[in-house]
């Protein structure tokens, strides 16, 4: 059953990206629940933590608001792009060992990619460059508490996992602080409990302060589970 728009969303501190705002992918995934099929979610403000945010339908979009301040908006979308073939599990594991966040991390407490998050407390997806330099990749086995009663991954965690690897896909182009501006996600097949996955990201170009990336989730057998396309915004002066 689809949720109604007479509702609210509260982002717990656990799901932060920067210390004082929600992880962009996770927040986008929560709002995307109000859209049928493929959704595109644009973040307009840093999503605040631990407050009730109002969900409202406005025309063809669903908005997330704090009082009258627009935090994010979602709409139906198409997602057409070539998704690269993933590396094998051993290559993904090796790539993860070169994760740039191990040396310097702007948001080490991030729910998705933060190095200060412990097992079971965050996703700990640490994507590093593959040998050919065309992708970043990492293995990922979601914790059991991320699944529903059917033992399928909750939808917001696909979105979360498809977020941060995109930032690291464009990291080598310019090592600067970037935050998620927009994310479009297509979920193809459910991830089931215990399934071993490979998450990849790739550079799709840039335009001034905007950087574009693609991301995807595969299982170890090479079956595509979900894919995403993101716009990242560079923050001048690395302040947030």
Key words describing this protein structure:
240 residues; mainly beta; Thiol Ester Dehydrase, Chain A; 2 domains; eleven-stranded antiparallel sheet; 4 helices
List the helices and strands and how they pair.
Blueprint: E1 7-10, H1 24-32, E2 39-43, E3 52-58, E4 61-66, E5 69-76, H2 89-96, E6 128-129, E7 136-140, H3 155-161, H4 164-169, E8 178-187, E9 197-207, E10 210-219, E11 224-234
Antiparallel strand pairs: 1-3, 2-5, 2-8, 3-4, 4-5, 6-7, 7-9, 8-11, 9-10, 10-11
Helix pairs in contact: 1-3
Protein model, in words:
The chain is mostly beta strands. It has two domains: 7-76, Thiol Ester Dehydrase, Chain A (Roll), CATH 3.10.129.10; 89-238, Hotdog Thioesterase (Thiol Ester Dehydrase, Chain A, Roll), CATH 3.10.129. Strands 1-3-4-5-2-8-11-10-9-7-6 form an eleven-stranded antiparallel sheet. The chain has four helices and eleven strands, in the order E-H-E-E-E-E-H-E-E-H-H-E-E-E-E. The protein has helices spanning 24-32, 89-96, 155-161, 164-169; strands spanning 7-10, 39-43, 52-58, 61-66, 69-76, 128-129, 136-140, 178-187, 197-207, 210-219, 224-234.
How would you summarize what this structure contains?
The protein has 240 residues and is mainly beta. The chain is built from four helices and eleven strands; from the N terminus they run βαββββαββααββββ. Strand 6 (128-129) and strand 7 form a beta hairpin.
What is the topology, as strand order, of the major beta sheet?
A: 1-3-4-5-2-8-11-10-9-7-6
Q: Number of DSSP strands?
A: 11
Q: How far apart are the termini?
A: 38 Å
CATH architecture name of the largest domain? Roll
Structural class: mainly beta
Q: What series of H and E elements makes up the topology?
A: EHEEEEHEEHHEEEE
Low-confidence stretches: none
The CATH superfamily label of the largest domain reads Hotdog Thioesterase
Largest sheet: 11 strands, antiparallel
Helix content: 10-25%
- As for the CATH topology of the largest domain, it is Thiol Ester Dehydrase, Chain A
CATH C-level category of the largest domain: Alpha Beta
Task: Sum up the overall morphology in one term.
Answer: globular
**Beta fraction of the residues?**
25-35%
Q: Number of helical runs? A: 4
Query: Could you tell me the radius of gyration in angstroms?
Result: 17 Å
How many domains, as an integer?
2
Let me know the average pLDDT: 94
């Amino acid at each position: 059953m689809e949720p109604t728009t007479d509702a609210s969303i509260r982002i717990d501190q656990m799901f932060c990206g920067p210390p004082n705002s929600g992880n962009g992918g996770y927040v986008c995934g929560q709002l995307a629940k109000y859209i049928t099929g493929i959704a595109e979610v644009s973040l307009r403000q840093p999503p605040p933590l631990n407050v009730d945010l109002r969900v409202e339908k406005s025309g063809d979009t669903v908005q997330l608001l704090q009082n009258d301040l627009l935090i994010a908006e979602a709409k139906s979308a198409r997602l057409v792009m070539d998704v690269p073939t993933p590396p094998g599990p051993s290559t993904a594991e090796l790539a993860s060992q070169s994760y740039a966040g191990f040396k310097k991390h702007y948001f080490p407490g991030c729910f998705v990619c933060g190095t200060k998050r412990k097992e079971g407390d965050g996703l700990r997806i640490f994507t590093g460059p593959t040998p050919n330099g065309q992708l970043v990749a990492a293995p990922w086995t979601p914790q059991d508490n991320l699944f529903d009663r059917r033992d399928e991954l909750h939808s917001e965690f696909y979105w979360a996992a498809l977020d941060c690897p995109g930032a690291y896909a464009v990291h080598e182009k310019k090592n600067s602080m970037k935050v998620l501006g927009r994310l479009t996600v297509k979920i193809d097949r459910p991830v089931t409990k215990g399934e071993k996955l490979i998450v990849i990201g790739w550079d799709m170009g840039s335009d001034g302060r905007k950087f574009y990336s693609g991301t995807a989730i595969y299982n170890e057998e090479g079956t595509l589970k979900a894919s995403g396309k993101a716009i990242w915004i560079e923050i001048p002066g690395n302040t947030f």
